């Protein structure tokens, strides 16, 4: 019974969380990488993982580590491995807002009318965007439909008939990608990027927390289609810079709200 | 009669515990299988060992079969290199006890999780690390550094670049 009392006294050491005693020397740096990564896995990507990435180099390395990414792998030998999905739709359904999805370098991923309603980052796992191809087959309106702020990078998106990227709302960032509309007699109906985003002008101030809708495209190759970008909302092509070469045009542009 | 195992802390204190309590630690279970019943734990102080034993005692009492279901699930969970989410303790009374147990300062929590990691007590590791995560939730980087005494080793340029890199995710930037 004396032992029991001693245990009770020792175990109950209530103290405010921010107090750091001089007696014990364990700090959060004493935790190994495995433990820290485990801690980070409990946190939602937005906003916490981005906050912890700003704390120090070690935390940034662990918080942004690909081990925390979801993966899409067409040939899943091990279907029970958590975080690995056989197709993009499943990965997107399982992802939490702010997650990053790594798509394995493979040329026959399918993406048909996939709606993305939460902030996600999609990354192609190959060396070049050509290595990871998402194809939208004839009969589907678009490969990816964005209703939230997202970023896609290092991917090829091909459409047989329809749109590669359908942007409804949010800030879309397209970096280092290839958007292809297949050549066919009906390709005047195809658009690599189409945006239908509208923001009611009268209430711009009160919608501050939603930010503004926009598309930013960088280092991306666009092939085919009637026009590179078609906007049917009140977003317009802005800050267009173009360099005309013999076989292609290099251009940089943004799609944003019409500046009043 | 319950078989007793003797644990010896780093500072020489001895603790006798029932076998099923000690076996909450997979390491101890493996050692006892082919060695004697006195187990030296030089890296664990008596203060921490007392707390760990208390946790094990509580959880051994609640789990009638502490070994089979959790150990195979734990083995599967720890071998995956992808995301792992915690499995919540199902018994609400036990959960309440756990929540009281982790009302400790950060330093004590780290001591306990380092010991629990060394002794391979999966549920205790999960419990403490989830508690640490709760203390990080919703905080900005600066607050987190203050709370855990972490030095900011980013240059202002690096910090700015990082914020920009991640700004795609934040609507109101």
Question: Could you describe the 3D structure shown?
Answer:
Chain A: This is F-box domain-containing protein. Chain A: InterPro entries: F-box_dom, SHCBP1-like. Chain A: It holds the Pfam family F-box-like. Chain A: Residues 36-72 form the F-box domain. Chain A has 260 residues and is of the alpha/beta class. Helix content of chain A is 16%, strand content 33%. Chain A has a 9-stranded mixed sheet. Chain A has a 5-stranded parallel sheet with strand order 4-7-10-13-16, with no helix packed on it. The longest helix of chain A has 10 residues, at 2-11. Chain A starts with a helix and ends with a strand. With 173 residues, chain B is mainly alpha-helical. Helices cover 58% and strands 8% of the residues of chain B. Chain B is built from 9 helices and 3 strands; from the N terminus they run E-E-H-H-E-H-H-H-H-H-H-H. Chain B has helices spanning 19-22, 26-34, 46-62, 68-79, 92-101, 106-119, 122-136, 141-148, 156-166, and strands at 4-8, 14-18, 38-40. In chain B, helix 3 crosses helix 6 (106-119) and helix 6 (106-119) runs antiparallel to helix 7. The longest helix of chain B is centred in the N-terminal third of the chain and has 17 residues, at 46-62. Chain B is elongated and about 60 Å long. At the A-B interface, helix 1, helix 2, helix 3 and helix 4 of A face helix 3, helix 6, helix 7, helix 8 and helix 9 of B.
């Amino acid at each position: 019974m004396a032992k029991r009392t001693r245990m009770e006294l020792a175990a109950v050491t209530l103290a405010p969380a921010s107090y750091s005693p001089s007696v014990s020397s364990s700090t959060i740096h004493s935790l190994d990488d495995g433990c820290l990564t485990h801690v980070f896995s409990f946190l939602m990507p937005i906003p916490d993982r981005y906050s912890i990435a700003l704390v120090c180099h070690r935390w940034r390395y662990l918080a942004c580590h690909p081990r925390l990414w979801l993966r899409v792998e067409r040939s899943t030998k091990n279907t029970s491995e958590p975080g690995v999905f056989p197709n993009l739709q499943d990965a997107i359904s399982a992802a939490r807002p702010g997650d990053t999805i790594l798509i394995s370098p493979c040329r026959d991923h399918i993406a048909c009318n996939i709606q993305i309603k939460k902030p996600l980052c999609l990354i192609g796992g190959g060396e070049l965007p050509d290595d990871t191809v998402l194809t939208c087959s004839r009969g589907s309106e678009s490969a990816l439909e964005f209703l939230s702020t997202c970023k896609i990078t290092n991917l090829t998106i091909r459409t047989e008939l329809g749109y590669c990227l359908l942007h409804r709302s949010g800030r879309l960032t397209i970096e280092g990608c290839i958007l292809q509309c297949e050549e066919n007699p009906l390709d005047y109906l195809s658009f690599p990027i189409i945006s239908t985003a509208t923001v009611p002008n009268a209430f711009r101030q009160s919608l501050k927390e939603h930010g503004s809708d926009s598309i930013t495209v960088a280092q991306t190759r666009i092939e085919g289609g009637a026009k590179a970008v078609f906007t049917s909302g009140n977003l317009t092509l802005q800050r267009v810079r173009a360099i005309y070469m013999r076989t292609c045009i290099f251009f940089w542009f943004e799609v944003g709200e019409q500046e009043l | 009669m319950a078989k007793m195992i003797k644990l010896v802390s780093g500072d020489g204190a001895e603790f006798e515990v029932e076998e099923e309590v000690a076996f909450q630690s997979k390491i101890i279970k493996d050692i006892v299988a082919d060695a004697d019943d006195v187990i030296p734990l030089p890296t664990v102080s008596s203060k921490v060992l007392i707390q760990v034993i208390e946790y094990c005692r509580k959880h051994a009492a609640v789990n009638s079969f502490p070994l089979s279901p959790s150990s195979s699930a734990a083995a599967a969970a720890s071998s995956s290199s992808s995301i792992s989410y915690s499995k919540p303790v199902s018994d609400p009374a036990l959960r309440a006890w756990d929540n009281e147990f982790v009302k400790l300062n950060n330093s004590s929590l780290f001591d306990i999780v380092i010991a629990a990691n060394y002794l391979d007590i999966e549920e205790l590791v999960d419990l403490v690390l989830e508690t640490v995560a709760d203390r990080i939730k919703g905080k900005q980087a600066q607050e987190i550094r203050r709370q855990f005494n972490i030095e900011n080793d980013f240059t202002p340029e690096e910090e700015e670049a990082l914020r920009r890199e991640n700004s795609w995710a934040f609507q109101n930037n």
